[in-house]
Specification:
heterodimer, A: mainly beta, 6-stranded mixed sheet, 5-stranded antiparallel sheet, B: mainly beta, 7-stranded mixed sheet, 4-stranded antiparallel sheet
Chain lengths: ~110, ~120
């Protein structure tokens, strides 16, 4: 079967760094997406990784290891507005997106 | 990024009535549109995938006669919740992709919060 695992909830302090992990087992792999979703709103795109390594985009970075079926989203210099759910999604061999349950990130002052 | 417009943002309807939700891709041709349902504190649940001009493909457990999907053009897909009941109350989100251009991100509409009373 297809499976995406993320921690349910994480807590971090404003100004700190947090790493949200995602492990996956899917039928084929055509890239991994990270989305941010604030409560009551639709998800917004953060990053896309298809090759191994780290992709940096401002305060957010995303890492992928295809051999390990593993990705993480790294958030630096955390701000209160970063409090949201972070969704990991893997695109399978049919280009369908398989979604993780999301990680709720709580930022404390 | 591309813009996907979903309307209405929220709707309250009486039990037994039908509600139509529209999803439009404003600046690109969406060869494929997806309809999701999301319950509080849960992730996105794919309901169906629709390709322009063809019938939607529904996920297991989703009643196609209750959730009617029409993808009449490359820029518009509609979801109609027929004979709505309180258990249909949820957050419905559409997303659009142009898979003919290869791998692309999914662009999401703003979501529709449906409350059936």
């Amino acid at each position: 079967g297809q499976n995406i695992d993320q921690p349910t909830e994480m807590t971090a302090t404003e100004g700190a760094i947090v790493q949200i992990n995602c492990t996956y087992q899917t039928s084929g792999f055509n890239g991994l997406f990270w989305y941010q979703q604030h409560a009551g709103e639709a998800p917004t795109f953060l990053s896309y990784n298809v090759l191994d390594g780290l992709e940096e985009k401002g305060r957010f970075s995303s890492f992928l290891s295809r051999s390990k079926g593993y990705s993480y989203l790294l958030l630096k210099e955390l701000q209160m507005k970063d409090s949201a759910s972070y969704l990991c999604a893997v695109q399978d061999s049919n280009y369908q997106l398989i979604w993780g349950a999301g990680t709720k990130l709580i930022i404390k002052p | 990024g591309a813009v996907v417009s979903q309307h209405p943002s929220w709707v309250i309807c009486k039990s037994g009535t039908s509600v139509k939700i529209e999803c439009r891709s404003l600046d690109f041709q969406a060869t494929t549109m997806f309809w999701y349902r999301q319950f509080p504190k849960q992730s996105l649940m794919l309901m169906a995938t629709s390709n322009e001009g063809s019938k939607a493909t529904y996920e297991q457990g989703v009643e196609k006669d209750k959730f009617l999907i029409n993808h009449a053009s490359l820029t518009l897909s509609t979801l109609t919740v027929t004979s709505a009941h309180p258990e249909d109350s949820s957050f419905y989100i559409c997303s659009a992709r142009d898979l003919d251009r290869g791998v692309t991100e999914a662009f999401f509409g703003q979501g529709t919060r449906l409350t059936v009373v």
